[in-house]
What does this fold into?
Amino acid sequence: MSQLTEDMTGTQKSAVLCLALGPDAAGALLGQLEPDQLEAVTREMLSIDVVDPKVVEEVLKEYHSASLAPDHSVYGGMRAASTLLKETLGAGKAEALLSNATKDEDPPRLAYLEMMEPKLLANVLGEEHPQTVAVILAHLDMKFASETLEMLDKKLGTDVLFRMAKMDKIQPEVLSMIEDGLRGKAEASTTDQMETPGDAGKVAKILNMAPKGRDQEVLNEIGIVNQKLADRIRALMFVFEDLLLVDGKGIQRILRDLDSKDLSLALKGASPELKKHIRSNMSERAGQALEEEIELLGAVRISDVEAAQQRIMETVNELEEEGDVVVSRGGSDDEFIT
It folds into this structure.
């Protein structure tokens, strides 16, 4: 055992290991723990700020995984633990577990801000004095603070960093005043975001019904102003179940470009109608092989199914753009001769 980890408990090492491996790999480990063990590991993840890369490496070596040693620090805290647990256990179980793990502890000052999106918090902080912003970011998870800082005006961000570097210890009363003043603004900002009428999903549905070609014209125009928004709408326009809109010939063309593992995984979360549509456009032998592969998968994570479906839809979108596949969207006046 290394001197770096000899004073660490098994629970502490497990928490570091899970944070180092990330949601997917850590899921298998967390799934094998008893409820009390899981809660203990969660408590440790919440208490972690930053773990030295050398400590991470030694922990990984002890678990016979030296090849996975990272070259960067591992960040813990509420945001990291929450993300990890939601990915592996689902939002409901994660929230219950986090609640149990923190019920006997006073939450860190300003920790509630870490549940906001960095861009949204940056909008709130943009109206505050640079010294106030510096105090706030100094009391947040470092990775989250860095992401928020990137969203601020460059001049303000530079001023904030300068003030953070010169900052003395903050009195609890001052921090309490900042917290009280900011909480209302943060809650109001979050509510405003939830009530904003903008909805990329609605735009995607409208464009799905637009005549062929018009949808791309609109997306190109949106992309000139905001490419990320255009990409988001494009991704929402055509979901996996919409493969029902592709005819048999198109399905056969799509299948030629798909990885069989992705297809079987994606179909685990598909409707009976879509499974039948796919199966009817495969040979008897290929169809049987697909069904066997789906059965062999057993229980799978929803996130893995969604990822496989997304990879397939990326292939479908490429084929549609190339003209190899036709999607029979509503609103099209095109007629075909067979």
Remarks:
- The beta strands are 50-51, 74-75.
